[in-house]
Amino acid sequence: MKPTIRDVAKLAGVSISTVSRVMNAPETVVPEKRQRVQEAIERLRYKPNAFARGLIYKKSDTFGVMIPDIENPYYAGLLRGIQDAAAEMNHSVIICNTDRDRSRMLAYVRNLFEKQADGIIFASDSLHRELYDELKRSRLPFVLVSTDAPEYDAPSVDIDNEQAACEAVRHLIELGHREIGMIGFPVGNTISGAPRLAGFRRALAEAGLDHCASHVEFAAHRFEDACEAAGRLFVRAPQITAVFAASDEFAMGVIAYARDHGRSVPDQLSVVGFDDIRMARMFIPRLTTVEQPVYQIGVRAVHKLHELMVNGEVSVLHERLPHRLIVRESTAGLRV
């Protein structure tokens, strides 16, 4: 059986903290005790590890990243940014897929606490009260990513979702479209659902197209859900010539449904997505979409968490990174 720090302490007749000080700051230990510990380490062939050091200093150079759906392509770029930034700081990352299950979220927080994680990055989901209370109880520093919880004053990194959605819909309006629909996230279950819907409706109101405000169908989170939502939308409003989708995956679902039912994109239907995942450039037609700086969001989340762990606070509580509309092939001027 592999020897532990406790075995070394027992053989040397000292405390675990003394063993740790011998390994990390030997000058702070009296020579006689230091020699006993070194002899015990040699005799047991003990090799210290990060977890053993964490037991002493309550620090493991590890943090958890909680995401709702590891299959969602949005999180690939986010996780890459997080892991690259963490590696530069010699930190390790534990990825926790929550499936938006509240009990699983709570279990992950408790598990990360037991593993002496230094903090948590919580990505793209609602921070419900019970989870917030558990985070505060564990005293684990945490940063929200692609989400927000202003009622708790929790540090966050995101974009301005309402403004981004508004600009996407304005693009459709500038192309001459006057019958516009939306496939959105359920407002009550996701943080970005409400502001993206608000941006959609703000752009319509500015253009005097309030009659389109009800042309909205909601989908869960996946391509298949968006296909079904598009079917419901086109049955209710067959006159629609353009659709704003709350994610690129939703936009792909809308395009797939339209093609299966005889509507070409962009000749007969323009579609705008959101996120600019890698697939947006590979899909045919290439998607017009709102680009989120996903990689940089991940990097900034790590830096903000580090700042919080070191200083106990952050200089900018709610950080908003810039977005931009990228026009590709899935949108075109209205053809009468």
UniProtKB/TrEMBL annotation:
Organism of origin is Thermobacillus xylanilyticus
InterPro entries registered for this protein in UniProt: HTH_LacI, LacI/GalR-like_sensor, Lambda_DNA-bd_dom_sf, Peripla_BP_I
Residue ranges of every copy of the HTH lacI-type domain listed in the record: 3-57
Q: Which UniProt keywords apply?
A: DNA-binding, Transcription, Transcription regulation
**Pfam families, per this entry?**
LacI (PF00356), Peripla_BP_3 (PF13377)
| Name of protein | Transcriptional regulator involved in carbon catabolite control
